[in-house]
Design goal:
CATH architecture of the largest domain: 3-Layer(aba) Sandwich
Number of domains: 2
CATH topology of the largest domain: Rossmann fold
Number of strands: 11
Strand order of the largest sheet: 3-2-1-4-5-6-7
CATH superfamily of the largest domain: Glycogen Phosphorylase B
CATH class of the largest domain: Alpha Beta
Largest sheet: 7 strands, parallel
Distance between the termini: 26 Å
Order of helices and strands: EHEEHEHEHEHEHEHEHEHEH
Length: about 290
């Protein structure tokens, strides 16, 4: 049973690992929630995989009540479904996962895609998440991080003596296979970006740079806005229109991974940006972790 307080379809490692298990005959159940901007993402269908999600709830006091509801919902499914393993992802799953770890006969795996920032939080909810993350790391049968540096930091930060493995976020073999017959003659040179559409990932200066390139170069963007950068796509489109290149800046919308890769194959160049200076460990230790 996979456990995430978000939309699990936004995490390629969950898709890959669940299909590996499902293809081996395991029955897989995902328990998650909605996610702002990424609510439309879905896994490709598989007879051994089911996905159950609560609706998205925006931040605030209602979200705290929503999390309590999520906790009881997960406990009920665990009692009824009786999984052998629980695969918990990211810090927000930790409060629920710690409770489940006390159930007899249940094995726990914790996979941290995005680590909490190094900044000290004074919010009670954040303190609870960090404390339960530490306890879960010490109780889980296995912990997974996307690279060696993050794994070492995780062990130091949580004090765990449990096995901690480094597993990169890589495409599945089927995804990496290229169709040689897809080559086509295009009149335009396509630059492609996909992912969360925020200034750190797709800065406004990329639109300015596009305006300086030949008219044959177009930028296609697929992805979603985060709750902290709402209307950023509209700002990019407005900038492109101001520069007279609105026909060369194309926002395609949100695509699930199996559909998204088709758009990737239709492009000539892919974009992936990271800030040069950041205090966020997820940004300066990105090796093996990026969804790109």
């Amino acid at each position: 049973m996979y456990l995430q307080y978000t939309n699990p379809a936004g995490y390629p490692p969950l898709q890959h690992s669940s299909r590996i298990l499902a293809n081996k005959g395991w029955e897989v159940l995902f328990l998650g929630s909605g996610a702002h901007g990424a609510d439309e993402l879905e896994f490709p269908p598989h007879p051994n995989i089911r996905v159950k999600r609560l609706a998205f709830c925006p931040p605030g006091w209602r979200q705290k009540l929503h999390y309590v509801q999520f906790t009881f919902w997960v406990l009920l499914w665990t009692i009824l479904w009786r999984p052998r393993w629980v695969y918990a992802s990211d810090p927000l799953s930790c409060p629920v996962a710690v409770l489940l770890s006390f159930l007899p006969g249940l094995c726990m795996l914790y996979h941290e895609h995005d680590s909490p920032t190094l900044q000290v939080s004074t919010a009670k909810s954040q303190k609870l998440v960090l404390e339960t993350r530490r306890k879960l790391a010490q109780r889980a049968s296995l912990c997974i991080l996307p690279n060696e540096r993050r794994a070492e930091w995780f062990k130091q930060d949580t004090g765990t003596n449990r096995p901690v493995l480094c597993v990169w976020n890589c495409p599945a073999l089927a995804e990496a296979a290229m169709n040689k017959n897809r080559a086509k003659i295009r009149s335009r040179f396509v630059v492609f970006f996909h992912g969360s559409i925020v200034p750190a990932r797709l800065p406004m200066t990329i639109v300015e740079a596009l305006a300086k390139l030949p008219n044959e170069v177009v930028l296609r963007v697929a992805g979603y806005e985060t709750i902290g950068h709402m209307n950023y796509v509209q700002a990019l489109q407005k900038k492109a229109k101001h520069l007279g290149i609105n026909d060369r800046f194309e926002f395609l919308g949100v695509f699930s991974r199996h559909s998204l890769l088709e758009r990737c194959r239709d492009a000539d160049v892919g974009l992936a940006f990271m800030p040069m200076n950041s205090q966020d460990i997820n940004q300066y230790e990105m090796t093996g972790a990026s969804n790109k």
